[in-house]
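thought: user wants a sequence for this fold. calling inverse folding tool.
action: design(structure=
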């Protein structure tokens, strides 16, 4: 079980393993083990609570080690000062104190906001990509704890700090300008105009987000409830864009989970029946960066054109849709397309469960060239696959795989498809029992090695 779990974790969470290869053939689980694992995961996910009941004062003490925060009401002031220092705003302390007293927050609400703000400051001050990822994960957990307090608070009137950087949005419908850098909104159907390098926590409401790109900076968005509309959700160019939408039937238009030039884009949508609609170079596309689109539950529809739905050129592109009956429609170079050119490139298109429909053009559904790796994996469900030439496991000097584990699928492919290779490696596998399957072992070994070369710092 261990090895396949490690392999699944590699695929799902992008964490490379340092298990050595070819050691544990007898430990590979059967198909039944994997199916059991997926059902258990679904059950766990359904019972998982994002918001954690917690004592924010205690969390704040743990985070900062500052005993003052237990007895005094100074956490928010210190957090704001740390935040201004991180974004180079020159301030005077009396105007911060005035702002805080105008807010009239309880100690608990102040502590909850301070907990989030200190975590965000750590992201801003991080020195390396690794430190940034660590700080982003801590921010995730701070938000889970602080939201418990914030969701029960109601703000009647929006408040902006004297330097135009921080905004606490009211429970009414607001419009947020692009120069704001730290926003917590307590409800209402809000509209966020173009932004770059900012933090948003929107607690409730059906919201509209426009032009959410990060150019050489960091964008963080948490939207907890409501049916939201996102334009250019999680686009990064040399920066980090981290996007999280917890509940609701959402719409994602334009550049969704797209990265260029060492950028990292993460989009996680946990629940709801969502619609993804775009043109070319979208829905987990990367050129020289990392893009991850992770949609956990729901019946989703994905529609795009060329180079989309797990498509990479010298980059890493991962689209994971875990559960639900989904429809994916794209044109050429899509649905697990990877081109290494002179560098490294990985595309993973993963669908765990549901009766799905996949439609794409040429060079799709598992196509790799020039030392790239592309894998299209569908575990369970009665699926339909349609693509044209050089598709469904087709490799030219690369490694391409299409694996439909339960094999209840209909495949329509064109010329040079379904196991075609020219100077590369290609796996077209239907109805696979991973236990003892040499091809699967070989594939995971390649992925393992590849990740190790790409991320030596994690080994
Ligand atoms: Ca609002
Ligand atoms: Ca919302
Ligand atoms: Ca959703
Ligand atoms: Ca789905």
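)
observation: tool returned 459 residues.
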């Amino acid at each position: 079980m261990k090895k396949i779990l490690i392999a699944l974790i590699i695929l799902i969470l992008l964490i490379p393993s340092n298990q050595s290869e070819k050691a544990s053939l007898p430990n590979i689980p059967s198909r039944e083990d994997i199916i059991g694992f997926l059902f258990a995961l679904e059950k766990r996910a359904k019972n998982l609570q994002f918001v954690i009941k917690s004592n924010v004062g205690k969390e704040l003490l743990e985070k900062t080690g500052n005993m003052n925060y237990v007895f005094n009401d100074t956490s928010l002031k210190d957090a704001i000062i740390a935040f201004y220092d991180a974004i180079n705003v020159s301030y005077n302390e009396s105007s911060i104190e005035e702002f805080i007293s105008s807010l009239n927050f309880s100690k608990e609400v102040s502590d909850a906001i301070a907990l989030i703000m200190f975590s965000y400051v750590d992201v801003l001050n991080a020195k390396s990509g690794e430190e940034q990822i660590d700080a982003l994960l801590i921010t995730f957990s701070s938000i889970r704890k602080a939201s418990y307090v914030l969701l029960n608070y109601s703000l009647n009137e929006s408040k902006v700090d004297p330097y135009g950087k921080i905004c606490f949005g009211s429970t009414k419908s607001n419009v947020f300008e692009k120069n704001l850098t730290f926003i917590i909104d307590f409800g209402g159907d809000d509209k966020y105009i173009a932004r770059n390098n900012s933090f948003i926590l929107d607690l409730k409401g059906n919201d509209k987000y426009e032009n959410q790109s990060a150019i050489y900076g960091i964008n963080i968005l948490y939207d907890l409830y409501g049916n939201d509309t996102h334009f250019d959700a999680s686009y990064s160019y040399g920066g980090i864009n981290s996007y999280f939408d917890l509940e609701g039937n959402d719409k994602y238009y334009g550049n969704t989970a797209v990265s260029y030039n060492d950028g990292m884009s993460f989009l996680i949508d946990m629940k709801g029946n969502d619609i993804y609609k775009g043109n070319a170079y979208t829905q987990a596309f990367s050129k020289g960066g990392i893009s991850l689109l992770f949609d956990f539950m729901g019946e989703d529809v994905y529609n795009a054109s060329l180079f989309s739905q797990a498509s990479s050129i010298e980059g890493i592109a991962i689209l994971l849709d875990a559960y639900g009956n989904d429809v994916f429609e794209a044109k050429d170079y899509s649905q697990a397309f990877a081109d290494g050119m002179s560098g490294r490139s990985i595309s993973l298109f993963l669908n765990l469960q549901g009766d799905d429909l996949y439609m794409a053009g040429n060079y799709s559904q598992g196509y790799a060239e020039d030392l790239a790796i592309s894998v299209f994996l569908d575990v369970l469900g009665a699926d339909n696959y349609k693509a044209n030439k050089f598709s469904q496991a087709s490799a030219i000097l690369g490694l391409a795989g299409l694996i439909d584990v339960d094999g209840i699928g209909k495949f329509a492919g064109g010329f040079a498809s379904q196991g075609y290779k020219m100077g590369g490696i290609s796996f077209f596998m239907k109805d696979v029992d991973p236990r003892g399957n040499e091809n699967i072992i070989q594939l995971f070994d390649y992925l393992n090695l590849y990740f190790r070369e790409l991320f030596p710092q994690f080994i």
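thought: summarizing for user.
answer: Here is the designed sequence. Residues 295, 298, 300, 321, 323-324, 326 surround calcium ion (ligand 4) (CB under 6 Å).
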